[in-house]
Amino acid sequence: MNSLHPIIDPRGYQERPLLKLAPRVSLQELQAGKILFYNNTKLGFCNYGEVFVRIKERFQEMGITNFVDYCETVRGKDTQQLEEYAAMLAKEKPTAAIVALGDMGTSPATCIVTIALEKLGIPSVYITAPPGGELVEGVAFYRAGRLCLCKIDIYQASTKEEVREQIDLKWDYIIDSLTATGEKLAELARIDFQLDAVPPAENGFLDITNKIQISEDKLYEPGCYLEEINDYFHELHISDGLPIIPPTQVRYEKMLEYCPFAPDMILWREIGPTGKNVTVKDVAIAAVMAGCKPQVMPVLIAAFKAMANEKYNLLQSVTTSHPGGNLILVSGPIAQEIGLSGKAGCMGPGYPVNATLGRAVNLVIMNVCRSVPGICDLDCLASQAEFTYCFAEEPSLAQWEMINEERFDAETTTVYVLKAEPQHDIIDFLSLNGHDLLDTITACCTTLGSNNAYIPGPLVLALTPDHGMMLKKAGYTKDTIREHIHLRAVHDVPMVRNRGLVPVRPPEFENKHPMPVTRTPKDIEIVVVGGRGGHSGVILPWALHSEGIVEPVTLPNGKPARSIEEFRRK
After folding, report:
1. Rg (CA), the chain
2. 335, 499, 540, 556: which could join 392 in a potential S-S bond, CB 3.0 to 4.6 Å?
3. pLDDT for the residue 437
């Protein structure tokens, strides 16, 4: 390969630690000691509680009777907080630990707790179920190299008898995981995970000559071997399925033209199945692959900083079964300066900066975090929002202050991020006044199948210019629109009981009726974008311990930038 033009591996270096498993114990020690049962709250619905009921019954048959139970969610906790929680559990001095349940979005965080327990000397077995079992294998593979994972086959409609039967089928594995030694333990803890079975090279580059029969002197001619390189990237699962631009060293260095931040500057810490830090370099490589221009890098950096806010719940968001993408909504003069659009069709095709900037975010999640669909990503169906989800506010369309003006000032550019569904259409061509229109809008702000029916949280109302003008003409401000939606976008309590998902609501909502889908009017962001006509949209949230975050676009010294040219390297 031409040494002047190597292709960078977007996965970066993977440390691949090999966990030293805790010493296993004898049956007599299990009988004499204390068994820790940690429930990450997932056993509290359907008939999943029978998992621990049956395990305890089988233990009692063997003369093991001293149990201690802990139940607490892992949601909203980062790696450090999860390890601290494991250290608290370890103070019980248990002889062994049973951890459950790795079935959905809490699977990776619970895996981190299990790994931490092993490091603290507590032999553990982690009970998993579809679809989380495969994701847990990936997390354990990247972060520990081995772990005792007991996969049972249950789902939300499994009966108590079926759950108990699954435990009985795997009982030998459970006991052996806590007591076996030597080669037997090694086999029990072995993880047969094929993604990245051959780790990325330590030098950080892809040697494509081992895969593609090429002529070195033609490799970097325009368009030469582009199809073969794309096929190889798809084969390695380091592409989103669309054509990518090969991230050569030259292209990477050019991408830093407007990026005065240190390449090794950490933006995300220990995120995703790999547990890798995400750096400025990782973002720049993804930006090359996505087709970005160098001028977008400062906005991308701000977006990654915003998503790193602990209130965004990034650890769980990158592998959740929810089909939401990471919305990047930019407000302020730099948006227009770099070509981001909020004009007609701004959430669809035809706007290269919108498309490529949003795409770079998802490529980082896939390539560095290794949240690969169907392997280490729990998405049941996913959505187009996970390819790209980016647009801007248009000053020429604004009927009220834009987000950057509300939070800072007109000269500051901000990035608002939200883990959210694709926009839901709000059609109203017939209302003659803003009052009737607002009722239509409010009715679209939730459904029984939306997360916010059970988890009140932020949402974004994207008004077309016509609808914005109608509301303003009727005397509405942003705050009065927010108040109207907060009071009237509700569900009758019987309709949101025992369906959907386990609710996560503020304590003061316990006796509310009807049940709001926002916590306060401030949860509602309002922007005027798009083209003339009667199709506005509402963007509904994931909201699982996840907030919308606003971050200013700043220079390395923390000062808000007034122009993209302030970032140009001298």
Report:
1. 26
2. 335
3. 98
Q: Which two tokens stand for residue 517?
A: 């889908």
pLDDT at res. 4: 46
Q: What is the pLDDT of residue 272?
A: 94
Q: Among all chains, which residue has been given the structure tokens 């069709």? A: 345
Please give the C-alpha separations between residue 70 and each of 86, 113, 389, 515, in angstroms, as whole numbers: 11, 13, 39, 30
Would you say the C-alpha torsion 175, 181, 186, 187 has a positive or negative sign? negative
Output the six-digit token pair for 63: 């003369």
Q: What phi and psi values does residue 177 have, to the nearest 5 degrees?
A: -60, -25
Q: How far apart are CA 237 and CA 493, in angstroms?
A: 44
By the 10 Å C-beta count (0-12 exposed, 13-18 middle, 19+ buried), 91 is classed as exposed
pLDDT in the model for residue 207: 84
Residue-wise pLDDT for 454-467, tens only, equals 999 999 999 999 99
Lowest mean pLDDT among 205-219, 383-397, 417-431: 205-219
Q: Is the dihedral of CA 312, 313, 314, 320 positive or negative?
A: negative
- The H or E element spanning position 132 is helix 132-143
CB proximity list for 523: less than 8 A, separation 6 or greater: 456, 457, 458, 459, 482, 486, 548
pLDDT, tens digit (0-9, with 9 covering 90-100), for 497-556: 989 988 999 999 999 999 999 999 999 999 999 999 999 999 999 999 999 999 999 999
Write the pLDDT tens digit of every residue in 132-152: 999 999 999 999 999 999 999
The segment(s) of the chain belonging to CATH 3.40.50.10350 are 27-188
The pLDDT tens digits for 289-317 are: 999 999 999 999 999 999 999 999 999 99
CB 175 within 8 A of CB 31: no
Structure tokens at 13: 């270096």
Measured distance CA(323)–CA(346) in Å, rounded: 20
Q: How far is CA 163 from CA 105, 404, 448, in A?
A: 20, 52, 28
Share of the chain above pLDDT 70, in %: 97
Look at residue 203 and give its three-state secondary structure.
coil
Strand 414-420 with 325-331, pairing: antiparallel
Q: Tell me the helix, strand and coil percentages in the chain, rounded to 5.
A: 40, 15, 45
Q: List C-alpha distances in Å: 209 to 6, 13, 405.
A: 11, 20, 52
Label the pairing between strands 414-420 and 549-552: antiparallel
Contact present, 372 and 237 (Cβ < 8 Å): yes
Q: Could you give the angle at the alpha carbon of 528 between the alpha carbons of 526 and 531, nearest 5°?
A: 150
Q: What is the C-alpha to C-alpha distance for residues 385 and 375, in angstroms, rounded to an integer? A: 19
d(CA 200, CA 367): 11
DSSP state of 76: T
When pLDDT is averaged across residues 158-175 and rounded to a whole number, the result is: 98
Q: How far, in Å, CA of 45 to CA of 334, rounded? A: 48
The long-range contacts involving 189-193, CB below 8 angstroms and separated by at least 24 positions, are 189/21, 189/146, 189/147, 189/148, 190/146, 191/137, 191/140, 191/141, 191/145, 191/146, 191/147, 191/149, 192/137, 193/137, 193/138, 193/141
